[in-house]
Specification:
It is a single chain. Helix content is 33%, strand content 0%. By secondary structure, it is an all-alpha fold. The chain has a domain of 32 residues. The longest helix has 13 residues. The chain is globular, with a radius of gyration of 13 Å. It starts with 36 loop residues before the first helix and ends with a helix.
């Protein structure tokens, strides 16, 4: 059986847009001030524990450009 992991970057008040600030949105860049080595390890482990990675269009375009 395949594994599905759902991840969302969302603030307690519901802001989901542009957590890194690279897209130039009004509330962009809100999450990276809290980024740490522990968070990076968690996201790395989470990514490689899944069988596939489903992204939205804008996120995909950013990943594809990298």
């Amino acid at each position: 059986m395949r594994k599905l992991i759902v991840t969302e970057y969302v603030t307690l008040d519901g802001v989901m847009e542009d957590p890194g600030g690279g897209e130039g949105t009004a509330h962009g860049g809100w999450s990276f001030q809290f980024w740490s080595e522990e968070a990076a390890k968690y996201k790395f482990d989470e990514l490689f524990a899944s069988d596939a990675f489903l992204m939205g269009r804008v996120t995909y375009q950013g990943f594809a450009a990298a």
